[in-house]
Amino acid sequence: MPELPEVETSCRGVAPHIVGRTLKQVVVRNNQLRWPIDGQLAEILEGRKLLELSRRGKYMLFRFKHGHLLMHLGMSGSVRVVEAAIEPEKHDHVDFIFGLDTVLRFTDPRRFGAIVWTDQPTEEHKLIQHLGPEPLSEKFSADYLYQQTRKRKQAIKVLIMDSKVVVGVGNIYANESLYMSGIRPGRAAGRVTRAEIERLLLNIKKVLKKAIAQGGTTLKDFVGGDGKPGYFKQELNVYGRDGEPCLSCGTVLKSQRHVQRASVYCPVCQK
């Protein structure tokens, strides 16, 4: 699944090609995504200038003068800029045509993604209004995270993956951040000390910044805005390495599941 770094990479990759340009045509080949695409989307957007492209959590926000297009890449979706002459393939469901040389193509093999139009402020939209702070923002501080963990019995990994607590810390980055912080994923959040929270916060920010800088994580069908896969997977310490030796101490890494997601950890380095 594309996570925050992959979505951020996609935004940065396509924005220079489309922001400030007028959307000439919207072609919807298959409107059956997570929710059906508005049948009036072409009428709503054609002839309008795209003013800004940003991100909130894992949603790409396309700002027009009269509202926003919210896009989610789902489990296997991607966007890329192609020329209009390039024929669409089976899973290329929507084209946003800015010119013959610039088509933003939305691809989603599993169709768990979403394209939603809203004319209300994005922070008031039901898909976004309950999201926690951005992990790279000042609002996501040690004080905030420490308070969120107090008296919580749920696993610390589950808590930092809760989008109501903080957005965008997906399974890969939660595994990596906890390993770097020496905290076992299954430990009760309320038992994590203040010093450990400070270390975890720094490592969450560090691992996400590094992933964004390196283009996201190569996972199955994900590609960045330039059509190329991310390269962060080469740097992973624990994710996907169950049964292999810890890179720090050589102990065999173990795995357990939290909310149906694999948690790989070192039984020696992580307490």
CATH topology group of the largest domain: N-terminal domain of MutM-like DNA repair proteins
N to C succession of SSEs:
HEEHEEEEEEEEHHHHEE
CATH class of the largest domain reads Alpha Beta
Mean pLDDT: 92
Termini separation = 28 Å
Radius of gyration: 20 Å
* Helix and strand composition category: alpha+beta
Record field, number of beta strands: 12
Uncertain residue segments: none
User: β content, as a range?
Assistant: 15-25%
Helix content percent band: 10-25%
Widest sheet: strand order?
2-8-9-7
Largest sheet: 4 strands, antiparallel
Q: Count of helices?
A: 6
The H-level CATH homologous superfamily of the largest domain, spelled out, is MutM-like, N-terminal
Assembly annotation: single chain
CATH architecture of the largest domain: Alpha-Beta Barrel
Question: Would you mind describing this structure in some detail?
Answer:
The chain has helices at 4-18, 41-45, 142-149, 156-160, 171-181, 194-213, and strands at residues 22-23, 25-28, 48-49, 52-56, 59-64, 67-72, 78-82, 92-99, 102-107, 114-118, 254-258, 261-265. The protein is an alpha+beta fold. It has two domains: 4-124, Alpha-Beta Barrel (N-terminal domain of MutM-like DNA repair proteins); 142-232, Helicase, Ruva Protein, domain 3. The longest helix is centred in the C-terminal third of the chain and has 20 residues, at 194-213. The protein is elongated. The two termini are 28 Å apart.
